[in-house]
Structures
1.
Amino acid sequence: MDNKFPGKDVTISDLKEKFPLAAKKNKNHQSKIDICGHVFGGKKIPIFAGPNMVESKELIFDVAKNIKKIGSSFMRGGAFKPLTFPYRSKKFNETREKGIEWLMQAKEKFKIPIITEVMETKFLPLVTEVTDIIQIGSRNMQNYPFLVDCAQTGMPIMLKRHYGSSIRDWLGAAEYILKEGNKNVLLCERGVVVPHTHRNTSRFLLDLQVIPAAKELTHLPIISDPSHATFWSPWVKSMTLASIAAGADGIMLEVHPNPRESAVDPLQPISYGEFKRLREEMKKVAKAIGRVI
Ligand code: PEP
Ligand code: MN
């Protein structure tokens, strides 16, 4: 066995043959990806903040204004949402094309770049008009024809790890994008499923260990999303700080003006005040390891 990475499912031949473009070529090989003037994979750790869903124009304008003031580099929020169950009341329906329009207006008014999810190729022309980073959600991580279509837009892409996937599968998916000549790929750890998480109060477990592990294997920047992983806002602070300590190159946070009123996953967003205080703590941990927020 040529595995020199104990505890991982990746072998030296995988690096050479299965995902040569995603693989690190030497110890110092690290991609620096500049998106709208924010560099991922360098000293600075950019932040994505925003609601789970683009619920209304009022909400998204309020969020854009506040998170920008607090110091988020990008605004996140889904207009097209991979909702776990198909039944929704009117209030909780995806806002889809309308949501994209509100993101566009908020981006123009508050001058903040956007990251938003796309789930189907047919919406790529619409979504790429507004977004600065295409978010490929966990559930689509291995939808290979879709990965290729996203890659061919030439836009920066954030590939969320499926909650059941190995590093090997994740890097294999990233390779599909890189192979199309699209080099602007960010990876995002967002929590994995383990037996004790099969309760609706505790959905996922943040795989902190995958951050240093992925850093041994790939030059692509790694983002951490403690909001989706913990599913519980009181844990977001510590898991964010731990992600920075573990070497994350970016942090994705769900932030909502009234967290418990969030249309989707109301237990996980933090408030503006919590975000502001957390950012101060993030600065301290970043400083301790020679990085900045
Ligand atoms: C999201 O970021 O809103 C999302 C749906 O994330 P994930 O694909 O990780 O569940
Ligand atoms: Mn979500």
2.
Amino acid sequence: MRVLAVASEIYPLVKTGGLADVTGALPLALASVGAETATVVPGFPAVLQALSNATVIHRFADLFGGPAAVLRGNAAGLDLLVVEAPHLYARDGNPYLGLDRQEWPDNGLRFAGLGAAAAALAAGIVPDLEYDIVHAHDWQAAMAVVYLHFHSGPRPSTVMTVHNLAFQGRYRASLFPRLGLPTSAFSLDGLEYHGDVSLLKGGLAYADRITTVSPTYAREITGIDNGMGLDGLLRRRADMTSGILNGIDDTIWNPATDTLIAANYTRDKLVRRAINKTALQRHMSLDQSVEKLLVGVISRLTSQKGLDMLVDQIDTLVADGMQFAMLGSGDPWLERAFAAAADRHAGSVGCTIGYDEVLAHLIQAGGDAMLVPSRFEPCGLTQLSALRYGAIPVVSRVGGLADSVIDANPAALAAGVATGLQFWPATPQALRYALQTLLVLWQDKPAWRRMQRNAMAAHVSWRASAHRYVALFESLLGDRP
Ligand code: ADP
Ligand code: GLC
């Protein structure tokens, strides 16, 4: 089976969040269960630099305002089809924002260009390349699904995966005539959304199947609280929708072989983990004590992630005797609030503002726990790595967090299956109570060790989920349009 994935980010070339981790890891996981993937990505400077063995396989005379080429090549073990369109993608900044942190005003066209190029490839514009499935990731790729829906002639089946419904690719109606679609597409059943154009809505309306990145999030988005205004459409399409939990790349995230941490360890050699704790405490200027409960945070700092609730409670939690190691970036007020907490609590709160992959590994290996207090979380990857590294995840009971952590309630503790703590509702008080409960568990060292070992044995790799994707793709082969 041949899959054409479409995505705006792919680890390790371009990453702003977990989307890139998934699009980077899934092709390798699918390959191990018999599905080959090529991924269509925009020709951002970082992608073009990394590309090797590139050959031009197609040229577009005009792709939304300028000439473009599709380059086929490899980077980081990935088979890529790169849309080289300098007028759309040759810019400094991140994939969506300029250096001034403002969205590029032509993002609608930039990602319609990605979708149009991918749809043309899927529809056979290059004779030797044929695909069974088009797998579109998030709003940036949704137009591939839309263009294929309106393509006359044979085409692969389409799967639209939602990584985060909060990002929809919504633009003014004036974008619509430039997309080259039939006018019928600008309707309640198509891309029209409260008088605007929503690229994601188009993908959700026209995809043969919809998936999202956890079973619980698949249910949550059909309700008004988490549907982000698309719950009506998602309820209508519920029979076509399923949730497949993400995994992590267990070659990158493996405490037994990780070269970015101070000491390697396994479930059976957990004592060596303390070396990482000391290294982390030293790195973040925390008091060096093995006895203190050290809670890690690695996150984008946005309201989704709920870390304002930690800011609210941090004075009390430090007074209770906890330490915090926080790595993140995002909303300026939250960055300032964490920096201020670190000043107020020197030795107990460490704070690094920015993006730092090496430190992220050390926090997973050296922290005793990992806090993920999201208000909503389609899947979440940091709690999966935390499980693998024996950093006990403390999570709000939403989306993929609910699906991946076994709460240490009395029944789970008695049965010896707990892997972390869940709390609900997502309020500062519930967060504080959860961390205080964790502190009580921390005092019982044998019980803590048992929980760490359970966590490290949890299935967080892509293996099971790769099989689920292949099963979904295979179910579509019969009804190829
Ligand atoms: P989201 O995609 O919503 O931000 P996920 O948990 O799915 O959340 O994925 C986040 C990814 O980004 C993880 O791989 C996490 O380790 C990483 N990450 C987030 N913030 C940072 C940071 N400041 N430094 C390094 N890695 C980070
Ligand atoms: C999004 C979600 C996150 C998920 C990631 C990868 O960024 O916010 O929960 O893990 O996509 O699917």
3.
Amino acid sequence: MSTEQAQPQRALAERMERSQVITLSEFQPADPSSWERTSCRACLKTDLVEVLNLGEQPPSNAFVATEDLGKQESRFPLSLRLCESCGMVQLGHVVPPELLFRSYLFFTSSSKWMADHFGKLMTENAAEFVPPGGLIVEIGSNDGTALSAIQRSDVRLLGIDPARNISVMAASRGIPTIAEFFSEPIAAEVAKVAGQAHLIVACNVLGHINNLDDVCEGVRKLLHPQGAFVIEVPYLAPFVERNEYDTIYHEHLSYFAVRPLAALMNRHGLHVERVQLFPVHGGTIRVTVKHGVWRSDDAQAWLKREEAAGLSKQSTYARMAELTIRNKTELPTKLAELKRAGKKVLGYGAPAKGTVRLNYCGIGTDLLAEVTDSTPAKQGLHIPGTHQHIRAPSALNDINPDYVLLLAWNHAPEILARESAFIARGGKFLTPWLEELK
Ligand code: DWN
């Protein structure tokens, strides 16, 4: 390795030891350009049609350090496409996963509600599928929050997550973690050295992976014959119904309905056994997958509902595109009106979806100066592209704004409960759809 290459690696190693955050400027992949995929990720056919285009945007978690504000930021296309063969909704372009996930600033523990939700998922499924001494593997284990809920002597745990800065945190909690992208070769290696897993969990991960066939082949080899593969992914139906277009970002390559997911699993000797709906991340399905190829009654019922909702029809997304284009005007117009009226507005949460909304609507620091976020690693940095300064939640009391723009709208119940004093003194929460929340 040449000297100049050695420096970033040394910086990386030193920062990892201190489990400090590594901002993206220190960690660039060999070829940072995106490439266009022309075949469907679920059925591999090439019947993809563009249904919504959010333009060229910076990676939504590529938060910018103050010293990097004047530097050029990478931007990549955000083109949402529908497969006319199997109904899979997906991005047309792939940004190198090394760029998006090696150094990551989303922590599962950032929301108590989410930590409880994933802890419950682990305990319930461990009780149902994992015998004493059984192995539980989590793909995309992040900071180990979910696995730590079942840290006990009679089951074996393994996390797999490419984010080196976060895997260090999981390992420090005693969760054995492989800091790599899940793949079929890694799955085969784990099966060889640790045996097959009775439970494999992947929450908000499958949609982030370009090669779904490689994942499914890995799961097929790693999953015990009586085991279960439990997946959670944001569900396409509420995504369309509520026009959750700000959840379209480069990390989210696929937007799942049961129909394409079931077809994908069947191609790998797996089947959808059970589907449950949860109010996480704007509406999420928990899909229980097992070995064997047949259509469970539960899956059939979901396929019928999706047919009735028109989730495979282009016309469904034409309506979504209309609403998205309308929001691009309405949201900045509202913020400009509030500014002219002398009202102070503060952003709440610096989620990936906030980056998308602010960049798509062209909302700079003239309309929204600052946001708060409870994630220490994000505080002091700036929103990619629009550069709002990210402050600690205490800024809400320091600034005491008239309005709070709730960029982390999917956490509304938890946030409104916490900020009841702000509401009591007349503060107002505004969703990005311009709904006022009390
Ligand atoms: O798929 C993904 C989902 C699961 O999480 C990842 N690709 C990236 C990430 O998306 P996100 O950043 O939009 O997720 P959240 O959970 O909507 O982000 C919420 C943000 O808001 C976090 O940065 C934490 C912050 N927050 C806060 O400031 N106060 C959250 C809560 C609950 C709060 O009370």
4.
Amino acid sequence: MKTSILAALAVLALSSTAFADTIKVGVVGPFSGPFAIQGKNFKAGIDAWMALNGAKVGDDDIEIVYRDLPAADPAQSKALAQELVVKEGVQYLAGFYFTPDAMAVTPLLEQANVPLVVMNAATSAIVTKSPLVVRTSFTTWQTSAPMAKVAKERGVKKVITVVSDYGPGVDSENAFKTTFTAEGGEVVDSIRMPLSTNDFSPIMQRVKDSGADAVFAFLPSGPTTLGFVKAYNENGLAKAGVQFLAPGDLTQESDLPALGDAAAGLLTTFHYAVSHDSAENKTFVEAARKAIGNPAELSFPSVGAYDGMHVIYKMIEATSGKQDAQKAVDAVKGLAWESPRGPVSIDAESRHITQNIYLREVAKAEDGSYYNKEIATFEKQGDPGLAALK
Ligand code: PHB
């Protein structure tokens, strides 16, 4: 009897090793070029997750296969995703910093039987393009609408909006305008700039001339946002009495050293601050700083990636490592957990993340460096942009 149990266990052990697989996750992001810090943050979040949770789910080894997409380039994004699926045999696609790159991949998912976990791209509509998309970042509707409420509460009456002319910029403008107008405020003008704009002086002049008492702005985080905030400062807008309002993309932590005193006091609304005060965030920041190498480079895409890995590990667990994209996605609908950013859940209907949005002010730390200090919380925000699409 005893020997037969031992024999059975030996067979089990053998078969579980025999069935152990390597599950590949294909991650597309900007790992070189002007947005390389943003891609580095994807990798830091993924590395932090794997350092804290292991590189295995059950018996299966998890391997991340990275592909570099330096700028928004939908055709190249689609080609990279196809190559990852066909040649590398990835079971999951993840990452995607820019909206057009995520959009370009959604038509491939069902045929490839692969879920897409969006770790950054923030246009509301992305999740509606395929039932196999789950998003762990944010939408610009989600992060911009609360700023309209803050503006109204603080007595701002007239606002000019300035956004990059593509998905998340248009969503951000609509979110701010709809909410601010509903609160009784007035949007006096709305400027949409090409994504490639890097001389912001003429725009700052239009902002001054508009007679608005605040400018609300969205640009994708990177050299663009750094240039825009510098131009706001160098063109004397604060002195001219034009307040600065934006989602947190414009004061990402990795830009603060370069902005210096120019950033002091800027108000933004966002889902994540590196300074967020919780045990989960302390653990995360420690691991992510180690992973990124230069702690000053840590920024929000790292948390989208870290939580994206949380979701992917749950999907792998729920499917026992087998390739079943619909079952994997179904398994995370309604999933709730404590993220480094605060409590979050995956909305079962939209597959987008529900989360707190925080009002933050750029403040000076004791060591003289600047950080985003959370000063108020809008709890459990869904994505109002998805409702607006219906
Ligand atoms: C986007 O393209 O969806 C995007 C990129 C960077 C951001 C926000 C949104 O900071």
